[in-house]
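User: I'll paste a sequence; please echo it back and then give the predicted structure.

Assistant: Echoing your sequence first, then the prediction.
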Amino acid sequence: MRGSVMYSEAAQAQTLSSPLSAGKSDERKLAEGPTLKSLWDNLPALCEEARRRGREFEDARQLAEDFTNRLKAAGAYRVMYPKEFGGLGGTLVDWFDMGLALAEADASTGWAVMHGAGANAIVHALAERGFAQDVLSDPGVCCAWSNAPTAMKVEKTADGLRISARWAYVTGCTAATYLGGLVPLPDETGTIRPVAALVPAACARIDPTWDAMGLSGTGSHDVILEDVVIPYQNTFSWPDGTPVGIFPWAICSPGIWFISTSATAVHLGLARRMIDEVRYELAGKKDRSTQQPLLSHPGILRVLEKAEGTLHLATAGMRAMLSDMWTRGKTAVPLTDAERIMARNATAAGVHLGTDLARAVFDVAGTTAIRRNGVLERLFREANCLTQHLSTSNFAFEFTGRVRGGFAPLDGRI
């Protein structure tokens, strides 16, 4: 097709250059790769690196390539899909705990990695089996797409969708092996539904537009496709798609509660870090009037101890909910409407709770909290970001409330 990039040719070139493209050697390399146990063994060192380099990532507006390569080698992006597709076979709680630990070290790392691992899990759950196998068998796989198109031209052809488009907020795009975004298409009834369309990263262009007050290291830049043809089998309905993957891992779809779970892990991890950093800042300091340790001040004790208890309750509640959902996944039946509503509602609430905890603890930290480029200043900025995300803003409570009250049908926003 003159003037266009044929996606399938680029995909073939990428597959031929992949370390896992040699038949029998694929199975051997996958067997020799990371395991869930090795990921947990390596996670403390990865978290320490994220903590040490967080400011660097913020300044660069993306995670460093050498660091994302180490995360990929450890299997961080492959935690939540089955071994048959090259994953680590972890559970929802494994995915959540990994994100929680990384976010405590550096919020941008937690959001970008959990988001990428979640996108990979969705590909396994919803994409055509051959496409999913091709994408996920790459040990360096990281998928990234966005539901925020700012320009879109789509044409149906015999070969696939011919797309020229730009999407904003493509989290983790700089580490991605496959990129794209949602395309609105009519279904068999004529209803417009969003379809995810992905291409090898080499077929897309990244415009480094991401420059936020917090979570700047996530690399949530714009992604551009310029006259690219994507075969139909390499697109899939999301977030309304019907799972075709292996359960219990396929429980992650449909709905966007899975994305809001990532945001919850980030904000609860942020709250944990904020509490610890405030304790560190106040340690050894005394009240100017009484010369008593600041950490013994009743007002400060009330805030810190309430934050500790609330955070423990929220984290334990998230793990319990995700465990129940995993049990549902073992039945090979998607979540019920009520379960999706609760998951969507609870994860959005978790984000706002994490922000409230961070703000409350920040207020007792003293003047060091407002020091420009200080740790607390950065944490405060980051703790006020994901309350603006579409999946976890106050609009989320409107969506769940309308469905719960019978005023609107359940849809992909839940």
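Strands lie at 5-6, 143-146, 149-156, 161-170, 178-186, 192-200, 205-207, 221-230, 235-237. The mean pLDDT is 91.
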